[in-house]
User: Fold this.
Amino acid sequence: MPAFSPQVEAPGRAVCTLRVGGMDCSSCAESVERALRQLDGVQDVRVDVVGERVTVGYVEGKLTRGDLVSAITRVGYRVEDETPAGDDIAPFGTRARRVAEERRSAAWSGRRAQVALVVLAGLLWALSLVAEYALSMQALAAAAAVGAVVAGGRYVFPRGIRAAMQRALDMNFLMSIAAVGALLIGEYEEAGSVMFLYAVAQLLEGLSMDRARNAIRALMGLSPTEATVLRDGREVRVPVERVAIGETIVVRPGEKIPVDGVVLAGTSSVNQAPITGESMPVEKAPGSEVFAGTLNGEGALEVRSTRAASDTTLARIIHSVEEAQASRAPSQTFVDRFARRYTPAVVATAAALGVLPPLLGFGGWGDWFYRALVMLVVACPCALVISTPVTIVSALAGAAREGILIKGGLHLEDAGRARVVAIDKTGTLTEGRPEVVDVLALDGATPGDVLALAAAAEARSGHPLARAILRRAEEEGLAIQPVAETSAIPGRGLRARVGEEEVFVGSERLFEALAVPLDEVKHVLARYEAEGRTAVLVATRPTDDQGRTGHEDHPLRLHGVIAIADRVRPGAAEALHDLRAAGIEKIVMLTGDNSGTARTVAASLGGPGVGVDEVRAALLPEDKVAAVRDLRARYGRVLMVGDGVNDAPALAAADVGVAMGTVGTDVALETADIALMADDLSKLPVAIGLARKAERIIRVNIGFSLVVKALFVVLAVIGWATLWMAVFADMGASLAVITNGLRALRPPRLRSAAAAA
Assistant:
C-alpha cells in the first residue's frame, strides 16, 4: 500500500502526509518546504524534521501524491513507502515492524557511506596540510585539498545546486559557495577544512537527530508482534494485528500483553510502567482491565480482547505524541520568522562586505572577499532553528515514558509558564471513592428506608456520591425499587419517580431552592460540614393521579440526611509540595462540595504557601469555568486539573487542561491538553517540572545561538575569523543545542523529592 494516501478534510481541500528520509537540519526542512510551496495548489506545508514527516494541504484535484513526491525528490530527499500515517506505528504488527526495520537498515547504510566519506575527506585534508607545511609540495597540497572538498561535499554540492535552482539560501548552498570561493582565491587548506568540518558536523547532527527520533520509536518496541490466541480449543500464535475483538488471548508469566482487554481467568501482577509510569506492579484478577505493552508477572492470564491492535491505549498514546511533535510551539514560530529575515540580511551584508570596502579603497579585493565568505558561513541559522524542535520532541518523549501525554509544544510551553494551578477536589485531591459514614432518619423513617429511597433514585447516576449510596445499600442488602424516570439538577442533585412517589436527592442548596423547611436539621448539617462530610438530603412527595411528577400541591416531606466522606488521596500533600518545588506560586481548590468539607480537606493538605492557598466551594460547573477565567485575569496562565470528563468545561477554559487517571479513557485522551495516564497526582509536578526544564533549555539554546551568531558577525567584519573557525562555531553551536535539547528526555528531580530521598 503506498505511503500516506491523501485524506479529504473539507470540500475542495485534501491533506497528504509523507515520510521523508534524509532530513537532519533546518536547511533540509527549508528546502523541502520551499519546493512544495512552489507547486500551484499547495495551501500549507508543515515539515517535522525530527519525525521525518511532511504534511501538505492542497486544493483537491489540482495535485496528486506523485506531484508532491516529485517536488521533494527534485531537491535531493527520498520519500519512503510504508503504511498510512494513522497506522504508522499504531498496529505494532509484523508488517509495521518490518517496514521500520527496513527503514532503520537503509538509514544505517546511508550513515556508513557518510562516515566513509567523512574519513576520506579528513585524510585528504590532513595530507594537504602535511604536503603544504612539511613537504612544501604545493601541487600535492592543492590536489589533496580539492579531493577533501569533493569527498566532504558529496551530499552538499548536489543539494546546494538544487537550492540555487530554487533561489533558496540554504546552508548547503552557502557552504558550497564558501568552499568554491576559497579554492578560487587559492586558500586550498581553508576550503578543505570548511568541507571536512561541515561533513563531520552533518554526520554528528544526523546521529544526534537519530537519537531524538529513537526516543519516540522506542515506544513501538513495547508491544509484542505476536499473540497466543485460543481458537477451537487450541492455542495458536498469530500476528498481533490479526487478533479480533472478543477473542481470548493467553498471556504466560513474563510475557508482554499484546492488546488491550479484560481478564477472564487467572490472577497476576502486571507492570504498567510503560503506560502509566507507575513504579509498582498492579494486581489483576478476573474483570480487571489490562493494556497492550504492559508486562505480565508471575501468573498466567486469559484475556478477552477489547480493542484492535491499531486502537490500543499504547497505540493512541504514540499517535498522539507523533501528532504533538509535529505541532509548532510559539517559540518555534518566533525562531522561524526570525530566521527568514536573518539569513537574507546576513547574505546581503556579506555581498556588501566583499564589494564596498575595496571599491572605497579600504584594502584589497582578496581580503574582503575572504571576509565575505566567512560571513556566508555565519549566515545559516541552523543552531537557532533546530534548538526548539529537538527540545520539544525530547520533552514529549520523556513525558510519555513517565505516563504523561502532552498534546503539543504549545501546551508544553504553557505548562512551563503557568504560575497558578486550579485543582478539582473530588477524585483528584481525594480518592474519588466516597463512603457513607452516617444516616440520619426523620419523620418516622428508618436509616434503611432513607438509604433505599436514595439508592432507588440514584440507580442510574454515575456520580461518585451516588455510587457511595448504592454500595452502602447493597452492603446492607436493602430492597431497591425500580426507578421509572430520573432527571439531573446540575450541581445540586436529581429528581426521580420511584413507585408512586417523586423523590428528590441532593444538597442543602437544592432543598433551599425548593423552599423545604430545614430548621430541624440545620444543626446536623452544620456539624457534618464542620467534620468535612458532605450532606445528601432525601425527600419525597406523591405523584399526581396519572403518576406524573411535578405535583406542586403536595409539600415535600424530608425523610433524612446521608453523610458521605471522601478520604484525602495518599501522597496528595507531597504532590502539592512538589508543585511548589516545580515553581507553582498559587494552588486553588475548586469543588462543588460545601465550604466546610472543602476547608477540612484543604487543612489536611497544609495551609497557604504549603498546600492549598485558596478554596472555592459550592461551585456549579459553570461556576468552575468562571473561577478559572477569574484566576486567568488575576494571575495569567492557569493550569486546571480534573477528571477529564465531569470537569471538561473548566479544563477547556484553562490555558492548560490536565486530566488525571485517563488510561483507557477515550474522552480524556481526546479533550485534555495533558493526560496523566495513572491515577497518581505525583505525576502532575513531574509534568510541570519537565515543562519548566524544557522552557529553560529552549531559552538557553536560543540565547546561545544568537550570541554565537552575533559574535562571529563582528569577527567576520573585522577580519579576525577564519572560514574553518566559522564552520566549527556554526556546527558546534548546532551540536551543542541538540545535545542540550536531549536533556529534556529526563524529567528534573524536584527539590522536595530530593530532600525526602
Q: What stands out?
A: Residues 118 and 200 are 6 Å apart (CA to CA). Confidence is low (pLDDT under 50) at residues 1-5, 82-94, 753-757. Residues 435-565 form a domain with the Calcium-transporting ATPase, cytoplasmic domain N fold (CATH 3.40.1110.10). The longest strand covers residues 13-21.
